[in-house]
Fold each of these.
Amino acid sequence: MNMLNERDPFFPAQLESLYPAYEGERTFRFAEPPDHFFLESGVPLGPVTINYQTYGRLSSAGNNAIYIAHALTGGSLVGEPPRPEKERGWWEPLVGPGRAFDTDRYFVICSNLLGGCYGTTGPSSLDPKRGQHYGMNFPVVTIKDMVRAQKRLLDHLGVKELVAAAGGSMGGMQALEWAAMYPHMVGSAIAVACSGRFSPIGIAFNQAARRAIMSDPAWQKGRYYGRDFPHEGLSLARIIATITYRSNESFERRFGRALQRAAETHPFAFFEPFAVESYLDHQGEKLTRRFDPNTYLYLSKAMDLHDLGRGCTSFEGALRRIRSKVFLMGISSDILFYPREVRGLGVEMRRCGVDARYEELQSPHGHDAFLIEFQQMENYIRSCLDEVENQ
Amino acid sequence: MNMLNERDPFFPAQLESLYPAYEGERTFRFAEPPDHFFLESGVPLGPVTINYQTYGRLSSAGNNAIYIAHALTGGSLVGEPPRPEKERGWWEPLVGPGRAFDTDRYFVICSNLLGGCYGTTGPSSLDPKRGQHYGMNFPVVTIKDMVRAQKRLLDHLGVKELVAAAGGSMGGMQALEWAAMYPHMVGSAIAVACSGRFSPIGIAFNQAARRAIMSDPAWQKGRYYGRDFPHEGLSLARIIATITYRSNESFERRFGRALQRAAETHPFAFFEPFAVESYLDHQGEKLTRRFDPNTYLYLSKAMDLHDLGRGCTSFEGALRRIRSKVFLMGISSDILFYPREVRGLGVEMRRCGVDARYEELQSPHGHDAFLIEFQQMENYIRSCLDEVENQ
């Protein structure tokens, strides 16, 4: 089903190595024909493959599980890889025996989200009906769809209760949807640097990134599989996004106004880059070696559509459904999800009767601090889980 | 010299109407061969044409002049057009008889900046040596070069002293350079929403915009004159920039999360735009009807290179040269020039002995508030000029 596992010869060479087949890698497949997985839009999708990783053991009562949701370009490898690999999980310092998400106590699950390109069904997957890659024929998926697919996986694994649903950025959006959509199953949501509905400026930055991809002549309306890869478009999309993941303070500390090759040239050459430009070019280049452009389009669209209130009577109505504790964390220098926005969500939640707590991570690194400031994250997550266990 | 005035048949049709020949429009030409205008880089340029507008009358002592500098995509039309036109000047509510820049008292000059595409020599001009448009053969110009060219214009007009050099954004950068480069000629600098040296995050956003232009296959390394216009690239550059000129609060107020065609469709269509997306698409489209992409590259590069301290012993050394009053204004919601950055420049200036004052414009509209919040701007400018006159 998913060409990344199957080493589809038509998949761009750039992406072949992005998803090494870990021994511990597992997939769950559902909605086999004639069954379907109906999306929030009403569109049927199937079959659906979910790529996932687990850490620790599920208790016999099925009530010691924690679901961790990844962000836009992440994957299911959240902790240590099943066998020693160069690549570490994206929250590896937080997941493992004795760590904040203590796998001696908890059964931790992370899956590549619906629409992804790391083993879960998405636009780069083969559409069995057409016998070719979905591309832009893939239906729009939402954060709610992702969470519903994750629920199917957890049912399959025998999980009855979640001690916590956790994540940062787009992962935090999923954690909040878990609390709103499955109030009786979820003990807590730990949501870092995210919001209850995506902001218009966030939509705007995503629009610019998508337009960069779709402007690349190689994009070919999404039919680039087996042809030229829209390298420039995806690079530029990543550059735009990376600026919003950092902050001027972090760029000041790291690069300032230094030129990349200060001693060799004078600053008046048009193509003489500042160090910050070289850094961003490199970040753009890096993503093209590991990510599918159509997936970028669909997952950023899912972010744009993120709104806890859709399908409920109102946004407040969605908040009032929540029964679990909600632990919110804003990042002091975040320019994509302003800390005041995250704090404001906490205020709104408490007004709706939710047991919501807000804390602010102090960091100069901007939005990406949730992937950098592990000590502060660890302290917060430990205190959250203590609070859930001791209630 | 400049094809926009001369209706060069090779210039893209999009741009033909961008610069209607006002009756009051004037040009000044200097650095005629064998003379040259030597740029900060040491590269000679010439001849140089400066397109400018003036308002009011110069006193016989030549000491009642105010120079107003425009921002990235502006032109010399700052006040009322010489004859009734649809287009108004970009600071028209501030410039005129009895207005903040009172043309009954002051002789106001505004010129299209060096490197521009509205009548002043820039990359879209014909290079007389090669007999074709400069394109990427145009030399890198800096804010200091722009100010030095403006000084040549003012000498030509008989201006001996400037009561003020004023501007917002890139115009503010020029105002500050006026104070630092010609300390004995300038009575005050009124600089809104700008900095003493451009920030790394500002460079980063400009890099993304430039890359959008240069990624457009129609850009052709700058040789698009008379051929396909890099429409998509310039649109995307403008979209990226416009996001940074606004703020989430302004987008929230105006668009929120509304869809462009709310009633007609459901939100799950991939290409169904949010209202904020349609707005930005429109802004991108609009610029392509009035601006030259190579000019965008060069002027944004000049912003990146903006550093009052370059060529001085240090940044502090440049500030210590200033003899004039400096009136700084930050904008509360600006995400391109954070108000704390502008305020910080004021602190640094006072530490260097400069008579610097800081005020904050309160607005939800972000960076572009300097083109929107005319009442607050007027109050501030009036108080600044009063202070200069009454010293």
Amino acid sequence: MQKIISRATLGRLPLYLSYLKSIDSEYISSSAIAQDLDLGDVLVRKDLNSVCGQGKPKIGFQTKNLVKALSKALEVGKTTPAIVVGAGKLGMALLDYSGFKDYGLDIIAAFDSDESKFAELNGQKPVYSMENLNRFCRIHDVKLGIITVPDRSAQSVCDALVACGIDAIWNFSSIILSAPDRVTISNENLALSLAHLHISQNH
Amino acid sequence: MQKIISRATLGRLPLYLSYLKSIDSEYISSSAIAQDLDLGDVLVRKDLNSVCGQGKPKIGFQTKNLVKALSKALEVGKTTPAIVVGAGKLGMALLDYSGFKDYGLDIIAAFDSDESKFAELNGQKPVYSMENLNRFCRIHDVKLGIITVPDRSAQSVCDALVACGIDAIWNFSSIILSAPDRVTISNENLALSLAHLHISQNH
């Protein structure tokens, strides 16, 4: 039973997991969780349903099974490597950001075409030249790539990532990228997010 | 007639505007725009409807009126100031990012509690101390604030922004902020975005 977990549900899973680890009852119902976390009954039931199926009527879920299912969904203990192409300010900010670890993700290196940015310093994540991209992705089995280059280079970087076997791309450029169907692309338009916040406030 | 414009619609407005500026017919129909931009008929009609009402049957929109309405919705020619609190890598990347200009937004300064980050250099946007926040926001009539501080400081920064008269906050921390109802908060959880791309690909 593998369902697609919505973005909103995924965002609440770490909350459920830390809550479940803090209690010591053998069974727990979704309504008890909802009450303790101050969330809606239906919401919690749907969230848990999408990772662990239905609980037993009147009893609920076995706590340890729920912990196991949540850990699996969040890939706790497993680390998925990702890389970022474009070692500008945004790329370096992402490379440096520690929050990805909560979801078992680790941006392990950055790549850039600008020689002045190459660096392999102790205790810091490395920045390599684009020539190393293919070999690095194959060796580390990297399937997730992030594009933070200027718009004019975004499509060629996308092509390079696809050629390296990447199958999911997080695109921070404002270009609509074209890639084979097997590749999932998620567009992150920061300017649009701020603009939408602005107009929402003004209406 | 002021409607809320959806995020997706807002994202397409710059495209319509640059297209309309490139043609020289007096009237244009939404289906002609759809065809030229390779977008769906219904989609374009709904988009234009939300900024300019309905076109005339069989004739469509007067091009110059449509340009005017789109420019107004995108606030072309007007610049709305915003500030960022937290001059770490992410905050500085946002301060430096030029893409906000397409939507008439300008992040004009950053604020931080760490003295070593204060700087007012020629040709660069300034980083000020938190003590200057209130005066700066009042003088420049800043209503948009961005939070890029660590989670532990996010709520106190939120409180400070609210006290400065900010009414829209873009929150990059993973904390759920509490603020008065008049303040619109938009949460940007980068780790969650990447995690959701990852699980979407794996299912």
